[in-house]
Structures are given as C-alpha cells and as structure tokens.
Write a structure and sequence with these properties.
Blueprint lengths: L1 H7 L2 E3 L10 E3 L14 E2 L2 H22 L4 H15 L7 H12 L2 E2 L2 E2 L10 H12 L5 H20 L32 H10 L3 H13 L3 H5 L6 E2 L7 E4 L2 E8 L5 E8 L3 H5 L7 E4 L2 H13 L20 H15 L7 H13 L4 H8 L4 H28 L8 E3 L5 E3 L1
Antiparallel strand pairs: 1-2, 2-3, 4-5, 6-7, 7-10, 8-9, 11-12
Helix pairs in contact: 1-2, 4-6, 7-8, 7-12, 8-11, 8-13, 13-15, 14-15
Length: about 425
C-alpha cells in the first residue's frame, strides 16, 4: 500500500538548514500547481505517507458526488471557501474572481462554460473557446494571467474530487496576441531647481517636509508613511540619519457580500527586506543639512511629539491616505508651473543626484534598497552610461587644455591641427 500511495503523490526528502526544520515533503504540484502555496512538510517519511493515505481516502469519498459538478457550482463553492478561509489575506482575489467569471461567461458553441461539467473540460476546448478569444485585443501577459487563475481553479477542483488532471497549463497552449505590451518607460531626471519650486509651492510645512524628505532620501512612499519620529537622529553632534525599517502595506479582501474591502497597516519589514538576504534591507539614510532644518521646524510645529508618533500621519494619528500624497503633489506642481511628475519620481531624483555625484553602483543599490545591483543597473543604467561618457569627455578636454603639459600638434598640408 505504501508504494501505491507514494506513486500517487511523490514523497521527497529535502535538506532543511533551519534548526528543528521538517525535511520530508509531499509533492502536490503534479495535481495542483498553486504558486506561492508551501508544500506540506513532515518530520519522518512515515508521517508523510499517513498524510497521503488520508488525502487519498478523502479524495475518493468526495469524488463520488463532486465529479458531477458543473463549472458554476464548483466556482460558487470555491469562492465561498476562499472568502471564509482567507478573509484578511493580502492577495489578488478580486482579479482572480473577475477572470474566472469572465471565462465562465464564454461559450462552447452555444453552451455556457459555466454549465459544462468540470470533468468534461479539456485542453483543446480551452484553446479554441477560451485562449484564442482572449488573445483578441489583449497582451500575452494578460492572457497568461487568465490562464494562471484558471489553472489554479482546476488545481483546486482536483483536490475537491471534481476531476483527475489539470487541463490548463500555460505550456500546453499557443498564445498568439497581436497586441503588444507597453515598453517600459525610461526614467527621466527631474532637475533640482524644479524640486525646489515644488517644495516652495507646497501648502504647508507638513507637505514641504514630506516632499523634501522623499526627494532627499529616495524612500518609497510606503516606507515614508510608516516613519515615526523615533526613526530620526537629528542630533547636532552626530551624522543626521533616518532609519528605514517599516512599511505601510494595503490589505485587500472581499466581505461575505462580495464587496471589496481594504485597510492599511504597518509591517515591520520593507520591500528591501523581502528582496535582499543581507542587512541592507533595513537601511540608514543620511540627511542633508537643509532637510534636517526643515524636519526640526516641522517637529517643533507638531509640539515635540513622542518617538512612536507617525511623522506624516493623519490628524488623528493614523496612517495617512496615499491619495493625499498624490493629490497634494499634483496641486503643488500646478502652482509651481512645472512639468507634471508623480511621487515615485522623487525617488528617481534622489538616485540621479547620487549618480551625478559619482557614488558607486553598490552604494546606490544599498541606499535605494534594491534587491541587487542588477535592478539598479536596469533602472538607471542609461544614467550611469551618460555619466561615464561625460567623465571621459571631461578628461579629454582637461588633457587638451592642460597648459602645464600642452599636447604636441603637427600642421598638415591643409593647415589643420592634428594631435601627435
């Protein structure tokens, strides 16, 4: 029985370096390819086989009734389970639900896919009646997103006993989309005098300090919204710094009525923490003297708040709505009468100044909180190239006009100078 069970769900041994970690894993990816969902782990192979035996028994019991479910009936069951079990999970369920509903509304000849039995759907049917129509007017990236969500749908259907295999895998389909994805835009520089005008046009000290901080540290907006006064070191006898160790995240879910809901909370992790494996995830950013002076004035205006208070929170002390940052910046730009840009461009401005001042790629990577230096080069590579070219040209000019060691020239027949 053990060999029969093991052939149904492969049992693999994986080394776990964490102390006390479980090393036996049951590989369910063959029947339910769910990205991001961890595989079940156990202390011994025997425990893993018991888990498989229970899974197999439950699978047989459910199959007797659910094998006759339609796509719509399973969808209703699945969505209800999703809302019940993952009510506060940060996920893309709204997009997933929208994609599944769209596919179930499509037709095979004159029959709605929603009314077809889950077990009767095959790959050829999906190619002709789902994938090909989806390719009309959509990019390949969007179509792959539809396929990914439908594959997850069938993966759950297998677990519930509605069918035995997954007919929906990206590798099985021919995806021919005429519409092309938009090319990634090249990051453009914002000149320092433009930033100065926008800061001057900000409505009050709250927003002047917020814009100046974003442009002077390159912090992400979510990181800035989570900063408390205790994260600043503004002492005169030390190097002024800001600690970036938290971030505001948005949780999205659907309530029991299917209505979208969201809330903000502060996570004691930054994006860099999730991307990097070293200590650079939590970073300390130096503050320029002008920014330090603005922050001191703003802190004094706030009545010397305690270290736990948000620097740019709401009037009631809660997390500030991100729309307020976008709208206030737009108003300040309009008042300053300069070209439009969005809040994240303030982060790019910070990077452009670091590059112009000649900081190394590795130093810039750590200050920006990038995953690795490849990300830095991919985002700002054109600026590094222009800076290197500028330095090379400057060296040639310096050499050409160095009067202490003038270059030797020869006059040719056309009376033109030629450097020897």
């Amino acid at each position: 029985m053990a060999k029969e069970v093991e052939s149904l769900y492969p049992v693999q041994w994986k080394q776990n370096n964490k102390k006390g970690g479980k090393s036996w894993v049951v590989d369910l990816r063959g029947i339910t390819p769910i990205p991001g969902k961890p595989l079940p782990r156990f202390d011994s192979k025997q425990e893993a086989l018991i888990f498989i035996e229970n899974l197999k028994n439950n699978h047989g019991k459910m199959s007797s009734s659910r094998i006759h479910w339609t796509m719509k009936r399973f969808k209703d069951h699945w969505f209800k389970t999703e809302i019940k079990n993952y009510e506060r999970e940060v996920a893309d369920r709204p997009g997933k639900i929208r994609h599944i509903n769209h596919i179930l509304g499509m037709k095979v000849d004159k029959t709605l896919i929603a009314n077809i039995l889950v077990r009767d759907i095959d790959t050829a049917m999906l190619q002709k009646y789902v994938v090909n129509p989806l390719c009309q007017g959509r990019t390949k990236k969007t179509v792959i997103s539809f396929i990914s969500h439908l594959s997850l749908f069938f993966g759950e259907a297998i677990i519930e006993g509605c069918r035995k295999e997954n007919p929906c895998k990206e590798a099985l389909f021919k995806i021919n989309c005429a519409k092309q994805s938009k090319p990634k835009e090249t990051v453009e520089k914002i000149l320092p005098h433009v930033i100065a005008k926008v800061i001057e046009a900000a409505p009050n000290l709250y927003w002047k300090s917020a814009i100046q901080f974003a442009a002077g540290t390159g912090a992400r907006q979510g990181e800035q919204r989570a900063i408390t006064w205790g994260d600043f070191n503004l002492m005169a006898n030390d190097i002024p710094k800001a600690r970036i160790s938290k971030s505001v995240i948005t949780e999205k879910w659907q309530d029991g009525k299917g209505q979208g809901r969201c809330m903000w909370k502060i996570e004691k992790l930054t994006k860099a923490d999730r991307l990097r494996k070293d200590a650079a995830g939590k970073r300390f950013l130096p503050l320029q003297s002008g920014l330090v002076q603005t922050l001191k004035e703003y802190k004094l205006a706030c009545g010397n708040p305690n270290d736990e208070q948000l620097v740019w929170g709401s009037p009631t002390g809660y997390i500030k709505n991100d729309n307020a940052f976008r709208e206030t910046l737009a108003l300040s730009i309009k008042k300053a009468n300069v070209s439009k840009f969005h809040w994240h461009m303030l982060r790019h401005h910070y990077a452009s100044v670091l590059i112009h001042q000649g900081l190394s790629e590795d130093s810039i990577c750590k200050k920006m909180g990038h995953a690795d230096i490849t990300t830095t080069r991919r985002t700002y590579g054109h600026w590094f190239e222009s800076k290197e070219k500028e330095l090379e040209e400057m060296q040639l000019i310096e050499k050409g006009f160095d009067l202490t060691n003038p270059i030797k020239v020869a006059v040719n027949q056309d009376q033109h100078f030629a450097a020897e």
